[in-house]
Amino acid sequence: MASQSPRRAPFIVIEGLDRSGKTTQTSRLYARLKETGTQANLIKFPDRTTTIGQMIDSYLRSASELDDRAVHLLFSANRWELASMIEKSLIAGTPVVCDRYAFSGITFSGSKVNSEGEPLLPFEWCRSPDIGLPAPDIVFFFDITPEKAKERGGYGEERYEKEEMQLRVRDSFHRIGREMGTTWVTIDAGRERDQVEQDVWKLVEPLVKEGVDGPVTKLWT
């Protein structure tokens, strides 16, 4: 980005179902930005290196048990730990590429059900702790059927990788996508990696080159 430009850098988020390839594509995008001479910051949520992140990691590996509300708030707190860094980076002209964000927190918590199949946590309650976080300029949602995801290695290793859960998560992601409007881009993640990468790059390249006009916006405010 040219130094004389008043525009800030973009905040790019990649979301998706488990085993949709989002982590691979996030890494590919970060590498491609570096190859084209753009320094960027790469973030992955949950950030398991922090104190809060280590508690989340233990829970996800089913090594510990926590109340569902407590878990949700931990995920949100983990994002808030990096909120100011994200905003400062964007204002300084450094793009931020993020693997998972608040949308995952809402969809996974909101998709938990009791023995009767009723939601354990209301959707709006799940969203409330993340109100005010830096808002992405573009969100890529990697959509894949749970059946297709199961064909990929490692499926089922973590707590939420169950087909019924993933179906509910997928529906919740689609709900958020309808609310987010044009900043939400659905990507068919069941295709070859190179095809997915090209689709993402077509939209990211001009965003990075041209920058974003205006201040960093906030989620749901």
Write a brief structural summary.
This protein has 221 residues and is of the alpha/beta class.
**Percentage of residues in helical conformation:** 40-55%
- What is the 3D form? globular
Total beta-strand segments: 5
Query: How would you state the average pLDDT, rounded?
Result: 91
Give helix and strand order, one letter per element, not per position: EHEHHHEHHEHHEH
User: Tally the helices: what do you get?
Assistant: 9
Q: What structural class is derived from the secondary structure elements?
A: alpha/beta
CATH topology: Rossmann fold
* CATH homologous superfamily heading: P-loop containing nucleotide triphosphate hydrolases
Please give the radius of gyration in angstroms: 17 Å
Please outline the major beta sheet.
Answer: 5 strands, parallel
CATH class division? Alpha Beta
Question: Segments where pLDDT lies below 50 for 5+ residues?
Answer: none
* Major sheet strand order: 2-3-1-4-5
Q: What is the name of the CATH architecture? A: 3-Layer(aba) Sandwich
Pfam families: Thymidylate_kin
Domain Thymidylate kinase-like: 14-200
Protein name: Thymidylate kinase
Pathway: Pyrimidine metabolism; dTTP biosynthesis
Give structural notes:
Keywords: ATP-binding, Kinase, Nucleotide biosynthesis, Nucleotide-binding, Transferase. InterPro entries: P-loop_NTPase (IPR027417), Thymidylate_kin-like_dom (IPR039430), Thymidylate_kinase (IPR018094). This is Thymidylate kinase. The chain is an alpha/beta fold. It has a single domain, classed as Rossmann fold (3-Layer(aba) Sandwich). The chain is 46% helix and 11% strand. The chain has 9 helices and 5 strands; from the N terminus they run βαβαααβααβααβα. It has helices at residues 22-35, 51-60, 68-80, 83-91, 102-110, 123-127, 146-150, 163-180, 193-210, and strands spanning 11-16, 41-44, 96-99, 138-143, 184-188. The longest helix is centred in the last third of the chain and has 18 residues, at 163-180. The protein is globular. The two termini are 28 Å apart. The relative contact order is 0.23.
